[in-house]
Amino acid sequence: MTFKLKILGSNAAAPAHNRNQTSQLVQVNNHIFLIDCGEGTQLLLKKHKVKFSRINHIFISHLHGDHYFGLIGLISTIHLYGRVEDLYLYGPPGLGEIISLQLKHSNTTLKFDIKLKEWEPGEVETLFEDKLITVQSFPTDHRIACSGYLIKEKPLNRRIVKEKLPEGILPSQIGTLKNGKDVVDEDGNLVFKNADHTADPRKAYTYAYCADTKYTELLIPLLKGADLVYHEATFMEDMAERAELTYHSTAKQAALFAKKARVGKLVLGHFSTRYKNLEPVLQEAREVFSESYLGLEGEEFVLLA
């Protein structure tokens, strides 16, 4: 199992200071999820040697251009590369209309189908689920409809201790032990006690992408205890009034959120172009929450290798 975050772009509004607009990859086992797709994302994918064919799910947080202007370019490129597999796209109402209009006026008929799911603004929705993980959207407090994304491993089965398994135990009985149950016979008599043959499961990990938002504590119950949280930090605290007016957050506010939500690590991003040097941004956050880090291009944050 693998669970890690890779930052591609983390600048707000426009590219500047060798920082590109928002996009990131989350790899969970065999899935590679692309979250947001700012202008130039496909160039960053190439730079970091990510195969386009491995990206089957793309999540867009909202329809401000720095979060999705790279999407039609990426779709066009994978069409030219001959993709035929379905592409799953998730985002706000209106995203489908935008993609359709762009394809219509370029007279483009894709070789693959786009399976689009437009989430309901203001709601928490499960968008993707398999045996191992779920991906949920959750509303943030921004000028237009905007959602973050919560990627969670499902509770894991208990671990079998092979050295403690008796000879001749049946596969079905091992399955029962993995599910945390004792093995009993038809008459209800104990055959194998679960605690004698298993160990506690490893921790199930959680990553939360807090898209553009002004400071709000409404999300703390949902994200409490998350192992890794990306939270926008567009401004520093001396620009708090500007942050409030534009529905963004400061580095201090992002750190305060992380502290109150008791998260494991905080990744800062969506930096204003006014900040060429990001060290003061990082220091502002670390004064409140020591496990704060800059979301710089190419940085990886590994929960499980």
Protein model, in words:
The chain has 305 residues and is α/β, with parallel strands linked by helices. It folds into 2 domains: 257 residues, 4-Layer Sandwich (Metallo-beta-lactamase, Chain A), CATH 3.60.15; 41 residues, no CATH class. The protein is 23% helix and 28% strand. The strands form 4 sheets. Strands 6-5-4-3-2-1-18 form a 7-stranded mixed β-sheet. A 7-stranded mixed β-sheet has the order 7-8-9-14-15-16-17, with helices on one face. Strands 10-13 form a two-stranded antiparallel sheet. Strand 2 and strand 3 form a beta hairpin. Helix 8 packs parallel to helix 9.
Estimated share of beta-strand residues:
25-35%
What is the CA-CA span between the terminal residues? 7 Å
Q: Count the strands?
A: 18
Q: What's the number of domains?
A: 2
CATH C-level of the largest domain: Alpha Beta
Secondary structure category: alpha/beta
CATH topology of the largest domain: Metallo-beta-lactamase, Chain A
